[in-house]
Amino acid sequence: MMIYKMFIIGVLSLSIAPAAYANFDNAETQKAMFDLGYESVYDALKESNSYFKREIELPIQIPPLPFTHVLGRFNEKNGSFEIEYLNQNFSPYRITVFQKKSEIQWNENNATQTFTLNDGSKGSYFAKKPHMKSRNYFSFEKNGWKYFISVHPDVSDVITPELLVEIANSIN
User: Fold this and answer.
1) Is 169 helix (H, G, I), strand (E, B) or coil?
2) Tag placement on the chain: N or C end, fewer CB within 10 Å?
3) 131: CB partners within 8 A, 6+ apart
4) Do residues 22 and 86 touch, judged by C-beta distance below 8 A?
5) How far apart are CA 50 and CA 44, in angstroms?
6) Which 3 state secondary structure label does DSSP give 168?
7) 3-state class (DSSP) for residue 76
8) Model pTM greater than 0.90?
């Protein structure tokens, strides 16, 4: 009987597939992001400001989450500046900035909530259905820029729409 149990345990342990999650360490995460065109936020912001010939204003406030990496990327193809906030290989929070005259549009009719920012401008929150694993978004315009903040659904209980309004209001 003991041999039979050990045989069953052995068969079961061989038939269980390992989890399909990447388990990057800090150096691997950083290399993967650099391979995607990310660099220091300072360098990416400098490149973006030079391209747009004006300064992008960034929020002073960030979400209360741990981040192991904060990287930036200037994307000349779509005329955007991105900041990616990572915790190891998990990307809970991202800010993308476009020129206001950009052709990028959001259908405000699909917003689940609309907020008024301190300067009187509007911010729109787009929440995905709980069963969908896509991101939630907050968009607003300020100082001639279009801001698009994306939040992973796993942290949407921490990064609430109200917190996103505070973050938007922290831009001078």
Assistant:
1) helix
2) N
3) none
4) no
5) 10
6) helix
7) coil
8) no
Q: Which amino acid is at 153?
A: P
Distances (CA, A) of 25 to 69, 93, 144, 163: 12, 19, 38, 30
Q: How far apart are the first and last CA of the chain?
A: 73
Helix (H, G, I), strand (E, B) or coil at 71: strand
Count of CB atoms situated within 10 Å of the CB of 81: 24
| Three-state DSSP state, 73 | strand
pLDDT at 122: 95
| 105 Cβ contact list (under 8 Å, min separation 6) | none
**Residue 94: beta bridge partners?**
84, 150
Q: Is 32 helix (H, G, I), strand (E, B) or coil?
A: helix
Find where tokens 């490149």 sit: 47
Q: Which residue has the tokens 């290989």?
A: 89
The torsion region of residue 88 among left (phi > 0), alpha (psi -120 to 50) and beta comes to: left
Structure tokens at 135: 């991101």
Instruction: State the DSSP H helix or E strand holding residue 140, giving kind and residue range, or none if neither.
Output: strand 136-142
Q: Which parts of the chain register pLDDT below 50?
A: 1-24
CA neighbor of 153 nearest in space, from 123, 170, 131: 131
In three-state secondary structure terms, 124 is strand
How high is the pLDDT of residue 145? 95
Are the C-beta atoms of residues 93 and 159 closer than 8 Å to each other? yes
